[in-house]
Amino acid sequence: MPEKIKIVLESLIAYNSREFLRFKSYYDDACTFRYASHDKVLTMEEVFTFYESSFESSPNAHCDVVNITCAGEYVSVHERFTGILDSNGKETTPETIAVYKIHNQKIIELRHHFT
Hints:
30% of the residues lie in helices and 46% in strands. The chain is of the alpha+beta class. The strands form two sheets. The chain has a six-stranded mixed sheet. A two-stranded antiparallel ribbon has the order 5-6. The chain starts with a helix and ends with a strand. The model has no long low-confidence stretch (mean pLDDT 93).
């Protein structure tokens, strides 16, 4: 298994285990996040503030990897989430294509394309 895929999978294992600091450790401090539905580029601080609150509001959130592939410095993952609660407290099961850019053993960019 390519090292870049291992990095992404290990970060998702930490996410699923609610090991917030370990999850965060896979990301470079200058990592940028982009969501297909937004034009804004988010900083690591902005995104991890969101992750912290989502861990609290959706304690059963879990990410399953449907498919994963690697090409060069990019890892593309079809992710399926369960246990995510919307603003009305109703469980949703969002899916995304997440494209991770890896450099020096760290995630330096993440783009999410929710379906």
